[in-house]
Amino acid sequence: MSVLAALRFLLPWEFSPVALAACALPAAAYLAGLRARRASGRPEGGLRTLAFLVGVGSIYAVMQTHVDFLAQHMFWIHRVQHLVLHHLGPFLIALSAPTETLVAGTPRALARRLAPVVSNRALRALYRTLQQPVIACTLFVGLIFFWLTPAVHFYAMLIKPIYLTMNWSMLIDGLLFWWLILGPERAGAPRLATRMAMLVAIAIPQAILGAYLTFRAAPLYDVYGLCGRAFAISPQLDQQLGGLNTWIPPGMMSALGLVVLASRWMRADERAPLRASGQLGRAG
Amino acid sequence: MSTATDRGRAAPIRVRAAALAGFALLASGCARTPRTGASLHPLYGLAPRLAFTLQDAASGAAVTAAAFRGRVVMLYFGYTHCPDVCPTTLTKLAAAVRALPPEERRRVRILFVTVDPARDTLAVLRAYAAAFGPEVVGLRGTKAEIDRLAARYRVTYSFGKPNARGNYDVTHSSAVFIFGRDGGSAAVVEPADGVPAIRATLRTLASRA
Predict the structure, then answer these.
(1) Are residues B48 and B153 in contact, defined by beta-carbon separation less than 8 angstroms?
(2) Digit-coded pLDDT (tens) for B107-136
(3) Of A159, A165, A231, Cβ closest to residue B158
(4) I need a surface site. Which of A29, A203, A220, B12 has the fewest CB within 10 A?
């Protein structure tokens, strides 16, 4: 591939000012926050910084480069796109615990404007409802199944507003879900054990769906043939690769989440040996 | 025609929002009934309106979508060297048009847009289109014009490697988009859809004022 073609690949397939703003503004605030924190002698760690920037960067890459074209014309690349929007990108952002840095980098005037939105009662009630563990898991898995229903998928790939609704719903739900799993442990947030159970609960239906797509002989998604594939592979291979992408990497994301939570649990136990031994005493 | 004017003609935002709201309901309904090919996939006006500037193979002159306002239009992308899919599809579409009463038949046009303008010269395209019937209009454009139209309807095409004699296959969309007399998107034809289903949709659209 020539340099020019490579550069063209990095340009948006369908430019979206909203997607650009949704990635660029938080990234700018974060970078400003890094500077502010370094100046005040509380610098952010390198790994966390990397996690946040790679998370935002990967979301931008699947929405606003020619990856989006490939995702529209190849089922398995569409599954990779959703893996990033619904799992990987939000996972890395939540893992980086960016709140402090983002707040430090948000201009005062903007923060004042945002304050009423953040403290809006209706929004808070909606947020609390969506972040109930059972609702959050149902929504997370339900969205995957809904958009992969063949009749729904047909229109999502053919009609731009529906396609955009699909991708944004995956991104927003991904951020909500992984924030709930990896976010701070404060009052009202689910306990670590609940979070671990949630990760197992979402992995099972995804594995079943992924295996179904992988082993089903008949193609389910005619729309890719109808609109033309980006390059020539058989519908069956396309579906198998898509099924594997719905099955294996999401399971690994759950496993990775479990590792993160388990290490937090152990650290919490180390910090509170008295409480831990007290619990053990009661149990015994 | 610029993209800005294309957007200007898009369905009002309220109409689109209402259609989107109803979509989830409809789609979940479709999911339960297996497709029999008895009716086409409706588009509810959600795909963009018909808009293009291309070269008419019959006259060699530039032609826009405005020239087809008042007619029911079937839009199909293909190429004349196509070994099977294009002739089969065009034969099917032409059969559906011929099955209409004469006054409705006059209101229908089949637009065949070549994605292979290098081999499909105006003369080649003119002869090819005429072979399928008087309703078939061959359209040709620059690569940029064709790419823009294909992207508008979210379809694509790609070229295979040329053989020793310089011939090559083109992988392209098999979709046929049907537009009402007002230019609004009405339905999409899949390869599995038969003549009766196409004819039924054409009748409904052609009889509409």
Answers:
(1) yes
(2) 999 999 999 999 999 999 999 999 999 999
(3) A231
(4) B12
